[in-house]
Amino acid sequence: MGDLRARIDAVAARAGLAGLGVASVEPFTETETALRERRRTGMSARLGFTFRDPARATDIRRSFPWAERLVVASYPYLPAAGSPGPGRPGQGRIARFAVDDFYVPLRRALASVADILRAAGHRAEVLVDDSRLVDRAAAVRAGVGWWGKNTMVLAPGEGPWLLLGSVVTDALLEPDEPMRRDCGRCEACLPACPTGALVAPGVLDARRCLAYWLQAPGAIPRDLREPMGDRFYGCDDCLEACPPGRRSLVTAAEGRGRVDLGWVLAATDEELLETFARFYIPRHDPNILRRNALVAVGNVGDRELVSALIRYLGHPDPILRSHAVWALGRLDPEALEVHAEGLAADPAPEVAEELRVWRSGSPVATPEGFSSPPTPTGS
Which residues are catalytic? Predict the structure, then answer.
């Protein structure tokens, strides 16, 4: 197996992978316990993916009974993803992992690994962003990195700026040892989160996570809209604060990861879905992107976008109408007052409620009734 591993390592080096390791396939029992605990406490919010079936996601043999090893790889998306820079009024910010489809080179590299394994007479299947495997647990076991306090897998020289994927195989490759490293006393990521979603080291409450809400359907909780700032998709704050990733961060040139919010609000469904095809958009609903843009406009818009917000007061989607009320109330209160009488009679209760809240200036419960993070009970 030594020659086979050497050929795999050579492919990994040519493909630009940051790391590659081999893990055994025993169930990830601690990870299963943590997933179930997040569900029990509600911290997983409405996330599906590995939370939907923790037993399957943490035991690869439930999906592949023939599995003997996991070949796990990490792909660095910095400095190629660049940095968005300070931006201008009317611009939204995209998290670095989503600036390009960096999963393409990762999948290509893993496909080459699988080809080598198959050519040697073994079974092999590529798993990338797949609910059948908690890829972070596999990466830690394979020695690709360590599990950081921001819940990401961190690696020397790259920090958290990594995408992960695996090849499941029946080849009895020699497993690698887990990395003898951790975050030590560093907790820079915890206070960096703008909403306090990292409620304890290694514990994320998705109900407070901006990246979660920017991908979730429905209304964005009012108490999270202002902290969204100019974010249009994703959030990098806890990654930016991570010391092991600073070398990659400082070498990333500014000028990428910005989108014109006025264009988003004017674009057709087809234009949005084509332009942002690499994004995860629930049910392929482009109105989720429009909703994100409305909140960002309310935070960083300029007067030129007032007319767009007024048009959205009459949008067929009541969620977009209600978010337009919020944004216009911040950007041009006088313009909102002009339309207040009609909005108060809107048949959708969330629209009239948004107007009432704006007029009163009083906070209300979030859509899930969540007001403060519970005391964490799991690791």
Answer: 129
